[in-house]
Design a protein that fits this description.
Layout lengths: L3 H6 L8 H11 L3 E2 H11 L8 H13 L3 E7 L5 E7 L1 H25 L9
Antiparallel strand pairs: 1-3, 2-3
Amino acid sequence: MKPKRERYQNRIELLQGTLDMLILQTLQWGRQHGYGVSQSIGGRSGEVLRVETGSLYPALHRLEKQAVVNVAVEQTESNQRAKYYRLTPAGKRQLLSEQARWAQIVNAIAGIMNPAPEEGEA
């Protein structure tokens, strides 16, 4: 096992609010339990983004309180109880808003990182 310092050295810190958007995006594809949300984010990001349980479950509870996510307790195939999260209509609207905001952020950062040459510059 890698030392803790090494494990977190290459970790990408998410901008505040980005985790909520990623959770909502993941739930857009269908209901998931918490572990499934975490695995989906990790897998779809090529394992670059990892969501620890200490961040994931508080975010899921916050989204539930905001009524953008519903939770239902169901039996799994292995006959265990698990919480499954699903996007609500309000969650779908919030996701669209977050996607538009994210596009603005990406464009703004790209403008700084790759500025267009100003007049008179070669």
